[in-house]
Design a protein that fits this description.
The chain has about 325 residues and is an all-beta fold. The chain has three domains: about 35-145, Immunoglobulins (Immunoglobulin-like); about 150-250, Immunoglobulin-like (Sandwich), CATH 2.60.40.10; about 250-330, Immunoglobulin-like (Sandwich), CATH 2.60.40. Helix content is about 5%, strand content about 50%. It has helices at about 35-40, 95-100; strands at about 45-50, 55-60, 65-75, 80-85, 90, 100-105, 110-115, 120-130, 135-145, 150-155, 155-165, 170-180, 190, 195-200, 205-215, 220-230, 240-250, 250-255, 265-270, 280-285, 290-295, 300-305, 315-320, 325-330. It has a five-stranded mixed beta sheet. A hairpin with a 4-residue loop joins strand 8 and strand 9. The longest helix is centred in the first third of the chain and has 5 residues, at about 35-40. It starts with about 35 loop residues before the first helix and ends with a strand.
């Protein structure tokens, strides 16, 4: 039998980061019989891919790896290829180039393909299937272990319950950046006003990202933020970290979030976190763009003043006669 010569360009990936991996992609199981069972009656038991499975080892995410597969006709008569198919669009080959190709007895067909490794970490399995004019089908499998050039630990940070009315312990966290040759570029970028992110230099390069919850800006109840980190990796230049926090305060707004549009009025009621009634005695706002009017002992009306715009967020702080405090975060304000 002929041995396959892999033309995959090797990329240094020895001892790649010990980062957590996602669940590997799985190849859809073929319903075709094994080649020997399918073709033995036709004298094709010595026909197929050699080897049937190619292991590319570790490959860096985002790269494209050339692969060579060898299809061998060990039979005593010639064959003709009617179709060549790939199991996924990420395995690129010129199907028309091989279609209707004749393979003489004891001859072979070399198939060139490009495997786009993608970003999902773990085991990657893809396949090439050849169908002959007689309807016989043969499958060659390509396997690779997708590894990153860098990773963050952890990629998801959950601060849990955070009191919004006072600075509490546990409102900071550190995310480690792990890589042998990729660096962070610039500062991380959070997508919300209640989270700060900055790199922590260690020696020549940044190796940590410090996250801090700004409790006074954190909305009541559960919030999710995303932090974009830019790197020097040309193939995967950025990654997004997810951050969660649950704002806890004595007075809870109903509704939890407010979006002001034009001159429309928004009614907001406050109640104790335990569902008890509240009687507001103090209402403060940091923006002149908002008008606030009482609508009852526990209720206020909000309106965007004519000619004003607001930043991406604004805060309204309240206290009741029992000294309980709370605030309302107004996000995504529109004119």
């Amino acid at each position: 039998m002929l041995k396959v010569a892999l033309l995959a360009i090797p990329i240094a990936a020895t001892d790649m980061l010990g980062c957590g991996r996602n669940q590997p992609r799985k190849l859809q199981a073929s319903t075709s019989p094994e080649p020997d069972a399918l073709t033995s009656a036709n004298g094709l038991e010595s026909v197929g891919f050699d080897p049937q499975e190619i292991d590319l080892g570790q490959q860096l995410w985002g790269r494209t790896v050339p692969v060579t597969l060898m299809f061998v006709n060990g039979a005593e008569r010639g064959l003709r290829v009617s179709e060549v198919a790939a199991s996924c669009g990420c395995l690129v080959l010129d199907k028309d180039l091989y279609k209707a190709t004749g393979i003489p007895a004891h001859g072979s067909l070399t198939i060139e393909a490009d495997l786009e490794v993608g970003l999902s970490l773990g085991t990657l399995r893809r396949a090439v299937e050849i169908t002959t004019d007689e309807g016989a089908q043969f499958t060659g499998v390509i396997v690779a272990e997708v590894v990153p050039t860098y990773c963050f630990s952890p990629e998801l940070v959950d601060f849990g319950r955070v009191g919004t009315e006072s600075a509490e312990a546990g409102t900071t966290a550190v995310v480690a950046f792990e890589s042998d040759f990729v660096q962070i570029e610039g500062q991380p970028v959070p997508d919300c006003p209640w989270l700060e992110a900055e790199i922590v230099p260690q020696g020549e390069h940044a190796r940590e990202i410090r996250l801090r919850v700004l409790a006074e800006r954190l909305p009541f109840d559960r919030s999710v933020a995303h932090v974009t980190v830019y790197t020097t990796d040309a193939f995967v230049p950025r990654r997004v970290l997810q951050v969660r926090a649950t704002g806890v305060q004595d007075l809870a707004p109903v509704p939890r979030r407010v979006v002001l549009m034009g001159s429309a009025e928004q009614i907001v009621r406050f109640e104790g976190a335990d569902g008890s009634e509240a009687k507001l005695v103090q209402v403060e706002c940091e923006s002149e763009a908002l008008s606030i009017a009482p609508r009852g002992a526990d209720t206020i009306a909000l309106r965007l003043n004519s000619g004003y715009t607001l930043p991406d967020w604004a805060l309204v702080r309240v206290k009741d006669e029992r000294g309980r405090g709370g605030h309302l975060s107004i996000l995504g304000v529109l004119e």
